[in-house]
Amino acid sequence: MRFAFSCATLMCAAGLAASADPALKKGEKIVFLGDSITQAGVGPKGYVTAIKTALADKHKDLGIEVIGAGISGNKVPDLQKRLEKDVLSKKPTLVVIYIGINDVWHGEKDPARGTPKDKFEAGLKDIIGKIKGGGARVVLCTPTVIGEKTGGANALDAQLDEYAEISRKVAKDTGATLCDLRKAFADHLKAGNKDNKEKGVLTTDRVHLNEAGNKLVAETILATIDK
């Protein structure tokens, strides 16, 4: 499926992500690392596929390769364990990390199943350090939503905000490019979720993306990596 990206939309999304990274180059290999959202993102209507299509249309001469590396249920410690096999061995030039939902969500009923904040931060820094050590650039996305109600009304909003802030700090500390998906979602829902619905605007089930959610993620990441 192809998404149409208007200049106005991309300029708006670009405001959510500051980057000094160079433009995309010939032979670019981009790996998208994450959980079930990214695993589904390689499907026909997924955000990874939308980005792949948009880049192929715009940069036919660059031969950009796009690889999905999402696994359902993954948290930051899981990414650490499979980083060599699923990312570093691919010799990427750019890695987009979209993680954090399960680190919070899995700990809702049993904190031991989530990822403590210190391990979340340390794990992200470890992952980014190893990717950059291999010569690739890194884009770090903030986690999106666990429920679409506005004004902090979802049960895990406060905790998810804390983890998003950690991701922002890690991006700054490591020199990774920040893609603030959580802000993009909050802004979109504030304007578009007039009935304050828990799901159905950008997600199918409060977490996993519907068509509109995939479109928003694709637009926001594209505005970050392809200025």
- Spans where pLDDT lies below 50 across 5 or more residues: 1-20
Number of helices: 9
- Rg calc: 16 Å
Proportion in β-strands: 5-15%
Helical amount: 40-55%
Mean pLDDT: 92
Proper CATH architecture: 3-Layer(aba) Sandwich
* N-to-C SSE string, H for helix and E for strand: HEHHEHEHHEHEHH
Distance between the termini: 22 Å
Backbone shape: globular
Question: Which fold name fills CATH's third level, the topology?
Answer: Rossmann fold
Describe the structure.
- This protein has a five-stranded parallel beta sheet with strand order 2-1-3-4-5, sandwiched between helices.
- The protein has helices spanning 7-14, 36-41, 47-58, 76-86, 101-105, 117-133, 157-174, 181-192, 211-225, and strands at residues 29-34, 65-70, 94-98, 137-141, 177-179.
- The two termini are 22 Å apart.
- It has a single domain, classed as SGNH hydrolase (Rossmann fold, 3-Layer(aba) Sandwich).
- The chain contains nine helices and five strands, in the order H-E-H-H-E-H-E-H-H-E-H-E-H-H.
- The chain is an alpha/beta fold.
- Helix 7 (157-174) links the parallel strand 4 (137-141) and strand 5 (177-179).
- Helix 1 (7-14) packs across helix 9 and helix 3 packs across helix 9.
Quick synopsis:
The chain has helices spanning 7-14, 36-41, 47-58, 76-86, 101-105, 117-133, 157-174, 181-192, 211-225; strands spanning 29-34, 65-70, 94-98, 137-141, 177-179. It has 227 residues and is of the alpha/beta class.
